Amino acid sequence: MKKLNLITAVLFTALALMSCKGKSEKPAAQPAQSAQPEATGMAAAFMKSTEKTKAEEQQYEAALPEQKEPLYDAAARHGFKIGAVISYQSVQKSSYTDMIKADFNSITASNEFKAYSLLSQQLSMKSENKMPVMNYNQADKIAQFAQENGIGIRGHVLVWDAYMPVWFFKEGYKNDSEFVDSATMKKRLEYYIDEVVSHFETKFPGVVYCWDVVNEAVGDGPKEYKDGDARHVRTSRGGTTNYFYDVIGSDYVELAFKYARKAANKVNPKIKLFYNDYSTFYSPKREAIGQLISSINKDEKLCDGLGMQGYVGGYGQQAGCMSSNDINLFKNAINFYGNLGVEVHVTELALRNYDKSQAVKHEAFYENFFKMLGAINNENNYLTSVSIWGLTDNPGLPKTDYSYKMNGPYCGIFHYNLQKKPEFFRILKALE
Ligand code: GLA
What we know:
Layout: H1 2-19, H2 42-50, H3 54-63, H4 71-76, E1 81-86, H5 94-103, E2 106-109, H6 115-118, H7 121-125, H8 137-148, E3 152-160, H9 182-203, E4 208-215, E5 236-237, E6 240-241, H10 243-248, H11 252-267, E7 272-277, H12 285-296, E8 305-308, E9 311-312, H13 324-339, E10 343-351, H14 359-379, E11 383-388, H15 402-407, H16 422-430
Parallel strand pairs: 1-2, 1-11, 2-3, 3-4, 4-7, 7-8, 8-10, 9-10, 10-11
Antiparallel strand pairs: 5-6
The protein binds alpha-D-galactopyranose.
Residues 21-23, 27, 156, 215, 278, 309, 348 line the site of alpha-D-galactopyranose.
């Protein structure tokens, strides 16, 4: 029976993980109408490598240190919440939700709060007031879990060009009609942001403690932003047009923040508004993001915080992983953003590792990374939340898989079957 439970847990975890895809430094350009996970049947193939005999289980557990407090208590001592990724699939699995409840006080939905998940084309096409219509079923399940267990949600994300369905920008919400004009698009965006922010706050008061208002609006190279733009606002992504920029204009980022501030003020002024991006600790992107934040907050404080997606290490390869220099860069960047007058969240932490034989180094890297995070608030209170997305190992992933490249198969603080890894205890040690 126990074995059956274990197998079930492994299968469920596999499905959950497939929905928690990682990201690339340059996310795929193709607009995916649905970023729902694809169950490929890989779960079955993984079972052999993760299943342990009872004796092995006991031996493994005996070798782990005793846990004296939940992760969230250890993190709270240093002034930040500790979060985890969740999906519609994983929120229905008690093995996963038990794990969250035990140690985390913040969650972020991998995809379910994004516009491409919430927007309904069918309903929008029939909309009487011509404004977009949303379907909250899956997102509400996640919000309900958070509410029932006193866990906060990072709302992720109101505006993100990647995977955005093009019909949202078109007349009558039809795939093949003309693009609407800028004024119409602004109205749609304002309405969308207002509806979404107010939906969650009204139905689940106080649960969403912050929103990523805009994600990844800073381009990676000169091809992705206009010449002379110090803010590097993204005009395209890997060759695909950024329709927010194209249809609304170069001020779409600050407009989104204005709309979000207005919407939050109506329902709960305590909701914090964030700008979220990747490679935030590398120059020149760091400086461009700094310019962007300063420009958004020029006249009034619209942006409360900066979300640093924490994909750390070589992309898709071991070279560049677990470099102490990255820990320094990360620390400098937290202070850099904090000095601009905003708080900082680490939003999608994945300390990459592609090589199982490097497990001991990975544990140590985890401890050092969290020592750095824990020490930040000794001097100031910049860091207020840290969310781990590379939560579990996924040893069976093929090298070509997006998640393999994004997170690395041995990035986890949990094994594939949700058993705690030494990394988990090294975080506790770092935050002691
Ligand atoms: C970005 C987004 C995340 C996720 C990853 C890809 O980092 O912010 O929500 O979609 O890409 O997995």
